[in-house]
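Inputs:
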Amino acid sequence: MAATEISVLSEQFTKIKELELMPEKGLKEEEKDGVCREKDHRSPSELEAERTSGAFQDSVLEEEVELVLAPSEESEKHILTLQTVHFTSEAVELQDMSLLSIQQQEGVQVVVQQPGPGLLWLEEGPRQSLQQYAAIGIQQELYSLQEIEVLQFHALEENVMVASEDSKLAVSLAETAGLIKVEEGQEKNQLLAERTKEQLFFVETMSGDERSDEIVLTVSNSNVEEQEDQPTAGQADAEKARSTKNQRKTKGAKQTFHCDVCMFTSSRMSSFNRHMKTHTNEKPHLCHLCLKTFRTVTLLRNHVNTHTGTRPYKCNDCNMAFVTSGELVRHTRYKHTHEKPFKCSMCKYASVEASKLKRHVRSHTGERPFQCCQCSYASRDTYKLKRHMRTHSGEKPYECHICHTRFTQSGTMKIHILQKHGENVPKYQCPHCATIIARKSDLRVHMRNLHAYSAAELKCRYCPAVFHERYALIQHQKTHKNEKRFKCKHCSYACKQERHMTAHIRTHTGEKPFTCLSCNKCFRQKQLLNAHFRKYHDANFVPTVYKCSKCGKGFSRWINLHRHSEKCGSGEAKSAASGKGRRTRKRKQTILKEATKGQKEAANGDEAAAEEASTTKGEQFPGEMFPVACRETTARVKEEVDEGVTCEMLLNMMDNSAGCTGRMMLVSAWLLGRPQETYNQGGRRRGSRRVTW
DNA sequence: AGCTCTGCCGCCCTCTGCTGGGGGTAG
DNA sequence: ACTACCCCCAGCAGAGGGCGGCAGAGCT
């Protein structure tokens, strides 16, 4: 008979094949003295792997297990795939089972080709007349998968005994349907199940011909712990049985073989048989390099080629080569013909492979079948989920070979290397302005932020102009930069800052909102109040002096020193203005500008602006010209000047007042910009009358 | 049984685009 | 000193291309 490989994987059904569907030659090949030789090509490691993977796990027979067998028809032979059923661990009765203790029952001859230790056990049971069944318990402790490669046996006699009554295994025989149902619910059955931790192979015997009713049994293991949504073993068996039955009914006409496990049909028996093997896990072809097994020689050969690097299918258009012809075809489509047979019905997308189309369609449907177990993220394909998981694990598999910075994605690293370590890095010019940006994505952000159309009106801060593009608005507002937008309604004064205009307006209104808390004196500007407080009420105040390096003259204002230096040739202001520090240089430039402005504004009669320009830039009295003792006096004079009392007015006051001291004259002279020596030389310019303040 | 084709799954890659923090600059 | 602005940059996800490998089925 044909070699029937044992499958011990968890097929959930018992396979039944009619002998008439099996190659007769095969049967005869295996027959020798009525003995069915059996082959199993699986390796010990594979079997062990299957065993450890749970195929042979102990389990309690919980579900109702239907053993579906083909109807009994005389003179037909059957191959039965036996299903193992796991029972609980109290194997008592079978412990003494000797190796190869297949008990030959009355009229039953059971032969096991490669017996191994402790393999089969066949107990006496109630006889069935024609349709027989047997229960074979294999004590799990003794069961060595490597050694039970063959479990075919022939029942040469009419009757095959099943599990004995003693074993309390109850098997109901559905005679009319040709089904045998193992009813778990029956008490006897349960007793055995509870008592033994066995794998039971339920065997049906079909009546053979009168001389040699031969039953060919193959054994398959089945874990009774069935997966949800999967048909029970019994259901599957039933399907198979019906399938077989149906096939038999078509005998004589041109047959179509229907697989009732799946939708497969075939007019060829060989195809059908081959297909039915797909419902088992038979993989008899072992790779000697990695011990992996395959169903067919072709698969094994292709697999071995992956080990050896043999790539027989070479591309004619490039130097690529592939293990299989299919890979070559696919490669050709991708690289050379660009044929894309799979077209999306919702867009123009087309792909070489159906799986790519399937993946693509998810972008339309929004389907995200791959859920992250640690967050709410779900991806549309497995790779994205795997990549996403790095965000949880912190894994950064990509390292820059130059600076050894690590990255989570290869693309990120590539950009990093290009931007940080690359030469002639491409830049991206904004098409709407002169901006050049290193990254295309950032250019897009730039375009979106600055050049995107804004439905809302973007109003200029300084004028009524409105824009719909942010960049245009910014450019426009820059035009207001040096504009003296604030114009005095009482005079021609104009300035850039509103606070300057506010201060200026007070020169017209006479308002002095800033009051000194120490002396109740009022000021138009806060800066003036601060200066006042420092000079009059701060004992630590030391006025700064701008001293000419050439002639030694001191000046309270930097601008005065500047003016002096132009005449004296010392270049003080120039050197000061060209200081190295950016901030210092800028400040000096500002001072110079402000001073010049103050000069001009003063020339234009705008005293307030001139005073503001001078007093707010830190002008101080020349301290060494005025001893500390007279500091209060000089400050008071200065204050009067700040408050709009001109020096000429002050001199007139002194001239007309008694008690005006020489120091006061000195202050007046200084305020008028007259050199000290003029005073010294000229003595009392306006007399020595004492001025009382 | 072997060859071939097709389908499917998985893996890895690239390209792309968005996001948000960092840091420099100018006001 | 503070703030707004904007480019730089890394992180991360979406989409798709290409290939490796295996399984199933038609055909010879």
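The longest strand of chain A covers residues 132-139. Flag for discussion at group meeting.
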